[in-house]
Amino acid sequence: MNDDADEPTYRLAELTWREVEAALEETRTLLLPVGSVEQHGHHLPLGVDVQMPEAVAERVAARTDCLLAPAIPYGVSPHHTFKPGTFTVESETFQHYVRDVCASAGEWGVENVLLLNGHYLAQDPELDVVVRTLRTEHDLRAFHVPLSDVWAETAEEGRTGEPAFHAAEFETSVLLALRPDLVSMDEAVPVEVPDESLPLTDYDAYGENRVGWALSADDMADLTHAGNLGDPRGATAEFGERLVETAVSNVATLVEALDA
Ligand SMILES: [Zn+2]
Questions:
Q1: CA end-to-end distance (rounded Å), the chain
Q2: CA 218 to centroid of ligand 1, rounded, Å
Q3: Under a CB-based contact definition with an 8 Å cutoff, are residues 74 and 122 in contact?
Q4: Residue 72 CA, ligand 1 centroid: distance in Å
Q5: What is the DSSP letter of 90?
Q6: Helices (DSSP H) in the chain: which residue ranges?
Q7: If you measure from the C-alpha of residue 141 to the centroid of ligand 1, how many angstroms do you get, rounded to a whole number?
Q8: How far is the CA of 120 from the centre of ligand 1 (A)?
Q9: Closest Cα to residue 179, out of 8, 38, 52?
Q10: DSSP character for 72?
């Protein structure tokens, strides 16, 4: 439906209801970016986790015929409340809110919903439950799409090899690609997490040990003075662009299959 390159017609908040009605002739798929507003160390802004899925979703929508919903910016971030600027909502509140947003789209014709999750593993359990509820109780084909999964192949192949988790190499690289004006590399500091602090994981986003675990705000305050976990200093915009493009390509493949 993007006949006029200057006037994209996929951003729901910029459309009229009649334009949505027309768009539904071309697609039944909705992208919903889901993130969080939380501390990301000295060098990254609070909105990283929503800026990343918004940018990926924007590119996917521009390349396919699907619709793009306004993002859900607030997420489940109790472990980041030890620094100012962090918002968190209860797990159940979050699940119900995301579910209701998607279910209401199902009422006006959306059949497929992709939840693009930028909150880096932390709210995966909630979104897995939401997806199941949407499928079983609302007859929607819903998918949980964690960005860390859909760019994993590029992340593992292109990384420096330093342990990386929160606000480290991956997120910093992506923000350098998307919003370099918001990144202060001069302020970036490495935070090394001692192995003995968390015996059930090697503390890496793509570590060998995928045992589930959760951190409290007190745990995080003990682990990191700056707020990040890992070393962000090897981040580059070029790597970030490759992460974003891998995610876009994988998500676009799914959208095209759904709307075929
Ligand atoms: Zn993040």
A1: 14
A2: 18
A3: no
A4: 14
A5: -
A6: 17-23, 48-63, 91-107, 124-137, 147-150, 152-158, 169-178, 217-223, 237-259
A7: 27
A8: 6
A9: 52
A10: B
Following CA atoms 248, 249, 252, 256 in sequence, which dihedral angle do they give, to the nearest 10 degrees? 180
Q: What are 159-163's contacts with CB under 8 Å, separation 24+?
A: 159/206, 159/239, 160/234, 162/190, 162/230, 162/231, 162/234, 163/192, 163/193, 163/202, 163/203, 163/204, 163/207, 163/230, 163/231
| Residue 119 CA to ligand 1 centre (angstroms) | 5
Supply the pLDDT for residue 152. Answer: 94
Contact 107, 138 (CB under 8 A): no
User: Cα separation of 117 and 144, whole Å?
Assistant: 7
| 3-state DSSP assignment of residue 93 | helix
At 44, phi and psi to the nearest 5? -120, 150
Q: Residue 241 corresponds to which amino acid?
A: E
CA of 193 to the centre of ligand 1 (A): 17
Give distance in angstroms: CA of 108 to centre of ligand 1.
Answer: 32
Angle at which helices 169-178 and 237-259 cross, to 10°? 80
* Tens place of pLDDT per residue across the chain (260 aa): 445 555 668 999 999 999 999 999 999 999 999 999 999 999 999 999 999 999 999 999 999 989 999 999 999 999 999 999 999 999 999 999 999 999 999 999 999 999 999 997 789 999 999 999 999 999 999 999 999 999 999 999 999 988 788 999 999 999 999 999 999 999 999 998 877 776 566 667 787 766 667 889 999 999 999 999 999 999 999 999 999 999 999 999 999 999 98
Task: Please list the residues that pair with 40 across neighbouring strands.
Answer: 44
CA separation (Å) from 103 to 96, 97, 182, 256? 10, 10, 34, 22
